[in-house]
């Protein structure tokens, strides 16, 4: 039998997804929800906490629980976060398909990103990210096999970053990113549900360990309607 707070969470989730509660609406107060669901305020708080963790609401001081726009996903520009970490905030709304996983000598075009030459062994991973049953992200990752050995399809389905940090004991430190808007290519057309959009947002990242070793080059291609690219900027004089 499910905990009552989870039953309340699932009911409120359904109401948000169906549009009964829309973006920027205020949910009823904790007291009103407690009366509606015949539950304690502590149970309501647990349900609201789950809604917040999964990206459905935001608690606003003095206002209450504001419904977020679930049609767009906040994608941090300056942060270094894996898709899995973003997905954890979305509950069961995501799925990853590993289209291919190859171990071979790095192509010259990719070597230029790593500023390497000669024979360099690397992984090439192509993954499609599905959210709410729509294929909206195409990730193409190139990783140094000498730094990241033993990749498997299962690791790529879960989280490469989790494997690097928790299994290999390495520290991922920073990335340099470039964001462009481009025309979809044939691969985008084949692997993504573009829904008629004639542009995609491409984020190219060069990712480094804490010793400044570049171990990954990534090209992440996003359908433009599903993401809000966000950052926090501070003015310095």
Describe the structure.
The chain has 237 residues and is α+β, with helices and mostly antiparallel strands. The protein has two domains: 4-67, Arc Repressor Mutant, subunit A, CATH 1.10.10.10; 74-230, 3-Layer(aba) Sandwich (Chorismate lyase). It contains eight helices and ten strands. Strands 4-5-6-9-8-7 form a six-stranded antiparallel β-sheet. A two-stranded antiparallel ribbon has the order 1-2. A hairpin with a 2-residue loop joins strand 5 (121-131) and strand 6 (134-144). The model has no long low-confidence stretch (mean pLDDT 88). This is Trehalose operon repressor.
Q: Summary?
A:
With about 240 residues, this protein is an alpha+beta fold.
Number of strands: 10
Shape: elongated
CATH class of the largest domain: Alpha Beta
Element-by-element helix/strand order: HHHEEEHEHEEHHEHEEE
- Taken as a percent bin, the fraction of beta residues is 25-35%
CATH fold-level name of the largest domain: Chorismate lyase
Structural class by helix and strand composition: alpha+beta
CATH superfamily of the largest domain: Chorismate lyase-like
* Number of structural domains: 2
Which CATH architecture of the largest domain? Answer: 3-Layer(aba) Sandwich
N-end to C-end Cα span: 58 Å
Major sheet characteristics: 6 strands, antiparallel
Mean pLDDT: 88
- Helix fraction? 25-40%
The radius of gyration computed from the alpha-carbon positions, rounded to a whole number of angstroms, is 21 Å
Order of strands, main sheet, comes to: 4-5-6-9-8-7
Multimeric state: single chain
- Residue ranges: pLDDT <50 for 5 or more in a row? none
Number of helices: 8
């Amino acid at each position: 039998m499910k905990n009552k707070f989870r039953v309340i969470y699932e009911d409120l989730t359904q109401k948000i997804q169906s549009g009964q509660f829309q973006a920027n609406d205020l949910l009823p107060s904790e007291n009103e929800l407690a009366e509606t669901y015949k539950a304690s305020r502590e149970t309501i708080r647990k349900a609201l906490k789950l809604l917040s963790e999964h990206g459905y609401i935001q608690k606003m001081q003095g206002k209450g629980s504001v419904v977020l726009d679930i049609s767009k996903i906040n994608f941090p520009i300056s942060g270094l976060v894996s898709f899995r970490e973003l997905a954890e905030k979305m509950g069961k709304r995501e799925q990853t398909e590993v289209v291919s996983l190859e171990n071979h000598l790095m192509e010259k075009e990719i070597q230029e990103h790593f500023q390497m030459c000669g024979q360099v062994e690397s992984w090439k991973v192509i993954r499609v990210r599905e959210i709410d049953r729509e294929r909206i992200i195409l990730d193409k990752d190139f990783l140094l096999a000498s730094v990241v050995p033993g990749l498997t399809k299962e690791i790529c389905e879960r989280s490469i970053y989790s494997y690097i940090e928790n299994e290999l004991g390495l520290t991922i430190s920073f990335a340099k990113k470039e964001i462009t808007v481009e025309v979809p290519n044939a691969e985008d057309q084949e692997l993504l549900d573009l829904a008629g959009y004639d542009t995609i947002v491409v984020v190219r990242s060069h990712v480094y360990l804490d010793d400044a070793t570049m171990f990954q080059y990534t090209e992440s291609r996003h359908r433009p309607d599903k993401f809000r690219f966000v950052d926090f900027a501070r003015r310095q004089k």
